[in-house]
Specification:
Blueprint (H helix, E strand, L loop, with lengths): L6 E5 L7 E2 L23 E2 L29 E5 L6 H25 L3 H17 L1 H14 L3 H14 L8 E6 L2 E9 L11 E11 L5 E12 L3 E8 L7 E2 L3 E11 L3 E12 L7 E12 L9
Parallel strand pairs: 2-3
Antiparallel strand pairs: 1-11, 4-9, 5-6, 6-7, 7-11, 8-9, 8-10, 8-12, 12-13
Helix pairs in contact: 1-2, 3-4
Amino acid sequence: MHSLSFKVFTDLNAGTRRNCFPGRVGHGLAADLGFGRRKRVGSGCWHGGVAGGGERRIVACAVERNGNEGNSGGRESQSSNPNPTQNQSSFLSRSQTYAMLKQEMEVAAKSEDYKEAARIRDSLKMFEEEEPVLRLRRLIKEAVTDERFEDAARYRDELKEIVPHSLLKCSSDATTLGIRVQVRSVYIDGRSMPSRGQYFFAYRIRITNNSDRPVQLLRRHWIITDGNGKTENVWGIGVIGEQPVILPRTGFEYSSACPLSTPSGRMEGDFEMKHIDRVGSPSFNVAIAPFSLSTLGDDADIF
């Protein structure tokens, strides 16, 4: 697998900066990407180019209303849900349409076909207003803001009925033995080809050592599930070709990517680490809490 790497060692007392990482990503389900530069931690800036190539045109958008990751490692695949529900299949279809609309608007704007870009923009706006998941998310947010919590609970339950995993955020945060792992994923339009069933997601991981002992990251393990319920386990040595040592009150940050054949999915896993201040210290697993890969994104802030 051909890949580039991006890593950040962090002093928690350092200032902030913005990271932008358009990158070329190699083949594989968990390809590492980046530019081999070390910087301080700050807020993220995710960027992908606009896809070029042949002309395509989306002339209509029908929406159904429903009231109700450097180095390679071992892999193991299985299909945990070969027959997705009708709601899930419908959600995947709508997500694909949404991704295609966004990409086509970028292509039209880049080619200076502004009339076409405006037409797609209006279709996209109408889609966002009518798409059940986006609509219910918006209603939940408005209900919470207005302190209409009973309504918020009803909308939440309706959303869970439409797509059971739709409430999973595109970010996660978990701490194990003082080691905090934060993740944020984002859909990259410019690296995706929805018409061919190719969806590209980038994610950024920040590992913070809030303990009093230095640790070393030895191995990674990912559990990646696509929108059809197909699960793949990925194991590897370290991350982005390294086994970083993280001192107390410091952090390590890196960026990677995950291509999927569906417009949504999820990831979770763990890092195997060990304390290095004592000879013979046993290794331990640090949890990476589940997070979503979704073309629809969410309203969560980037850490």
